Amino acid sequence: MKKSLIILVLAAMIVQFAGCDNKTKNEPEQGQAMSLYSSYKPYTRWWWFSSKIDRRDVCEQLVWLRDHGFGGVEIAWIYPMGLDSTAVHPEFLSPEWAVSVNYAKKVADSLGLGCDFTYGTLWPFSDIDLPYADQTRNYFENTACEAGQTVESARRGYTWDFPREARIINHLDKNAFFRYADKMNKGLAEAYKGSKSGLFVDSWEVETQYLWTPGFGETFMQEHGYDIEPYMRNKTLLDEANAEVFYDYMHTLSDYVLREFYGPFADNATSVGAFSRAQCGGAPTDLLTAFTMVDVPETEAILYEPCFSKIAASAATLADKPAVTAETFTCAYGWTGLLYKRGRGHSPHQGKEQIADLKLICDALFANGTNQIIWHGFPFNHVGDTSNFFYTTCQISTSELNNLSGQNLTDFNNYMATVSEYMRKGKNYSDLAVYMPLEDAWMGGAYPDSMRKVKAFFWGEYEMRFINTPERFKGMQPLWVNEHFLKDATFENGTLHCGNADFKALFCDVEYMEIGALQEIIRLAEEGLPVIMARMPKEPGMVKHPEYETLIEQLSTLNSQPSTLNSQLSTLNFNPLINGENLPNFWIRQDGDTYYVFVANPMTQTIEYPLDYCYAFTDQGATRDITVNHHGKSEAYTLNFKPMESIMLKVNANGIEQIDLGFEPKRMNGYKKLTLE
Question: Tens of pLDDT along 222-275?
């Protein structure tokens, strides 16, 4: 290339980057994006495919996102598009890689957008240079390692540095995590500056059967008094006959996960001036407690049932976390494998998603306690190009040939921001604490095949994907509690103070209960707490306490209530905030003496994975008569749902007001269902 031509090319590049920077600086200032999602606008996961990242592309896309109603991004570093092993890209966490990341953070700050980071390349956490001793393992791999054999089953292939494979870290060893975190923090050091960023860990997509780590056997022996290894060695741990052994195994494993992973993950985020956001779904642990350990608990839908969100929302209430986020719209209509069409797999109807269908999903989440939407998601593309896409996502696109673009997308984002703002006013309302059936889940073993809709991702009841608070008490907006919070709970002046939540009564409907939880419930009942026991529990685990039956008799004496649940409810001497037959799902926030009630369209109760295309348009509207018991009076109210409409109520001493949410989704261009080849 001639010298004059080189000068012209360099000059063009400088003008290009300078123009992008000037455009950024000349945009109206919106201030620094506030920490912990105080902007209410939806975020999106921003898929950075392994390649060279151009500043102009970064700038153009962030401006476009801002102009279409987004509040921020979560950068996720993944494989090259089409699994192109020849794609030129900077090495993950290298100085060259960091230049683009740091620029994206600065541009986001200048636009008033938040900028979070998936804490690794793809997920779960993995590293191409991870020491062998730091990788995750099951019992059999650990035994082979101790015998001097090398086992390389814990690998992740589709990372930023594809085709090089990465090892998955051992989530049961905090030292392995901190060694991993040290590398991540060095790579992101400059990106941590400016507005506070969230560090994100996705759901637990690590094999959990026979999960193990050095020292686990000794710890188990100390905690339970017998040797777990024969059940591991003989592969009988998962046998139905050994449910009590599996329970003990889960008890020890859960403590490892909390102590060695979620705690260190949250502490690390704080130490670098960031905050932690986590999907604890799928983790073999006490989920409610795990969600309370991070700054922002996150759920997802509809691979998880919308009711699963109540676990994260309950955790947020107990631990005073203002935001509950949700990875939203993942695989809405199902999914195809990554390797479909040579690494260019499409979700069904990708690019032609119906916003009306997606509204059903987000409304279902709002009605189960979510108050911040994270789109899944937005693919990084070069300016003027829309050929990149992620295979399990809804396709947000700068091209208005796609449905999730233009004014329709902006209007939908504005709707979700409006609802999110109402659902962050004050605090979550609840009259009834419900004991979470953790012990039942750990005693339950495997889900039946009929419930395993995505068999590759889950297998055991410990995930609690389908649990829900009791329908008969829906008007009280029940929230989950557990032994962890009952230990410090008090009952004073007719109120159960549990964590940062206040309740009027406790409901238990479990087959199994730890002796510690039973003792706390008896203590609170003796202090005067109304406790409704649907049945008397049994003690889980192999080792039994001889005093357990005495405690059950003591609780039975304290719990001398009418035999039927309806009769028990009548003894509580208070009315639910909302009464009615066939109540839709709803969520209540209490702000001083004002209640904000989001009532989801009844159609949201019928959605399931995978969603039928254009399912929302089968809605013919609905009517529900309710009674709202507020400020010392009972007021009848009729909910008139237009097709695809959800309702927001404002309830105060002056009465009930319906707030116009101002959004009606339209039928958009579609096409025939994708046919796999």
Answer: 999 999 999 999 999 999 999 999 999 999 999 999 999 999 999 999 999 999
Residue 102 token pair: 């740091």
pTM above 0.85, yes or no: yes
pLDDT in tens, 521-539: 999 999 999 999 999 999 9
Q: Is pLDDT of 341 > 80? A: no
**Dihedral over Cα of 449, 453, 457, 462: its sign:** negative
Q: How buried is 356 (Cβ within 10 angstroms: 0-12 exposed, 13-18 middle, 19+ buried)?
A: buried
Q: How far is CA 275 from the centre of its chain?
A: 15
- Alpha-carbon dihedral of residues 600, 606, 607, 611, nearest 10 degrees? -140
Measured CA to CA in angstroms, residue 105 lies from 160, 322, 420 at distances of 19, 24, 24
| Alpha carbon distances (Å) from 357 to 74, 183, 207, 378, 666 | 24, 41, 32, 18, 10
Q: What's the token pair of residue 452? A: 């395993």
- Residue 652 β-bridge partners: 655
Q: How far apart are CA 109 and CA 220, in angstroms?
A: 48
Both tokens assigned to 647:
């309702």
- The reported pLDDT for the residue numbered 34 is 43
Cis geometry, peptide bond prior to residue 470 (ω within 30 degrees of 0): no
Which run of H or of E encompasses 626?
strand 622-630
Sign of the torsion formed by the C-alpha atoms of 132, 133, 135 and 137: positive
